[in-house]
Write a structure and sequence with these properties.
Blueprint (H helix, E strand, L loop, with lengths): L14 H10 L4 E7 L5 H15 L2 E7 L7 H14 L2 H10 L9 H14 L6 H22 L11 H15 L2 E7 L7 H13 L7 E8 L7 H14 L5 E5 L3 H10 L12 E3 L4 E2 L2 E2 L3 E3 L7 E2 L4 E2 L1
Parallel strand pairs: 1-4, 1-5, 2-3, 3-4, 9-11
Antiparallel strand pairs: 5-6, 6-9, 7-8, 10-11
Length: 309
């Protein structure tokens, strides 16, 4: 299971990002965290996850795509279940209460969860055995979905109703908020299908009051490839669907200074800057930026083209 070690002694210059992203997790919605390589987006999201888990009010599902899994989203939810059910107190609670919620699950998920809880019930088992049982259950879910799609040829995403059933069950039984982190989303082999699930997620936010989704994507401006460009385009489309969805751009002060200079703005940027893009990076032929950033924890306004800091 993915762990989130405390790297406080190695963690510099990202405290503002962690605070902002941690605040985002308190509300339903989606945040696409975009950064160039080696800017620390994975470490930042890991630190957000660690602090959320430490609070005790959140359960986190994390998966970093390596372009080989059957579904990025499915294995983030699998990790969520592993983190939930390897806690023996939560596991006993889940096994005793899940029948109350069975009627609200889609049939295939109800069958999978029932089999899983049956495997875990009444046994003193190790964390490794619990994790293995969960992995087997979710692998089986992925294989069953493959069988339904073009003779097993098409990569299987986690369907919308299944994702909703699985995450709602965790939230309702545990009383926790759910955070899903899809790291390296640009590598996801089922990105277009997962976009459809996330699109429905944003269009039906009342059903997902318990869940926030983070996508981590390499910034195409600094790592332009077909997969990076596609991921960023999908993220921009998601951002346009619902105010609860944003693109959070992690930038160093030198990069933000360069962007503002391109726009002819004369502003004192202060020290540490963080960007939150609320429109796209391009409209027509000329770049257009509308960015909210934080400078030295003081907010001010720079006149020009909607750049706030």
């Amino acid at each position: 299971m993915e762990t989130f070690p405390d790297r406080g002694d190695q963690f510099f210059g990202r405290e503002a990002d962690v605070r902002i992203l941690k605040d985002r997790a308190q509300h339903p919605g989606l945040t696409a965290v975009v950064a160039r390589p080696l800017m620390g987006k994975t470490w930042t999201l890991n630190e957000v996850a660690r602090r959320l888990l430490e609070e005790g009010r959140y359960l986190v599902g994390y998966h970093e795509s390596r372009a080989a899994e059957s579904s990025h989203l499915l294995y983030a939810v699998s990790n969520l279940y592993t983190r939930w059910l390897t806690n023996s107190t939560m596991r006993d609670q889940a096994i005793s209460l899940w029948k109350r919620h069975e009627a609200h699950l889609v049939p295939r998920i109800g069958q999978m969860v029932g089999t899983l809880f049956g495997t875990l019930a009444g046994k003193t088992t190790t964390t490794e055995r619990v994790a293995a049982a969960i992995r087997t259950a979710f692998d089986g879910l992925a294989e069953a979905q493959k069988d339904l799609l073009s003779g097993g040829i098409q990569i299987a995403p986690l369907a919308y109703d299944e994702a909703l059933s699985l995450t709602s069950l965790v939230a309702e039984i545990s009383g926790s908020r759910v955070v899903l982190i899809l790291d390296a989303w640009e590598k996801s082999p089922s990105i277009s299908s997962e976009y459809a699930t996330l699109e429905a997620f944003l269009k039906h936010q009342d059903d997902w009051r318990h869940t926030h989704v983070f996508l981590a994507i390499r910034n195409l401006e600094f790592a332009s490839t077909k997969v990076n460009d596609e991921a960023y385009r999908w993220a921009h489309n998601l951002r346009s669907l619902n105010p609860a969805s944003i693109i959070y751009l992690v930038l160093g002060g030198d990069l933000m200074q360069g962007l503002l200079t391109l726009q002819g703005l004369q502003c004192d940027l202060g020290l540490e800057l963080r960007g939150m893009v609320t429109t796209g990076l391009a409209h027509g032929s000329a770049p257009h930026f509308q960015v909210t950033v934080r400078a030295d924890d003081h907010l001010s306004y720079c006149p020009g083209i909607g750049v706030h800091f």
